[in-house]
Amino acid sequence: MARIDPLTSKQRAFLRTSAHGLKPIVQIGKGGVSAAAIAAVSEAFSTRELIKVKVLDIAPISTADAALALSDALSGAQLVQTIGRTIVLYRPDPEDPAIDLPA
Known about the structure:
Blueprint: H1 9-19, E1 26-28, H2 35-45, E2 50-55, H3 63-73, E3 78-83, E4 86-90
Parallel strand pairs: 1-2
Antiparallel strand pairs: 2-4, 3-4
């Protein structure tokens, strides 16, 4: 996969707005950022470009650490924001991006 340019503040703001109405579709629990959690997020990226991940209270990892671990483990995924115990991640579809980011 080609290297992805870092998101600009304008693009990050656009993605935050786009993610506002989304529900978390993956949860990080007592297993932390395990291979299963990474696989679940990767699978979620196969059908969408913008996802929310919820870090549960029982997770042995902080939200910030989980966000960094997920974005590092997933090729092309970028951290949009963390708010409370929720992580927003973005990874454009390599063939047909559905989200048109501002310049």
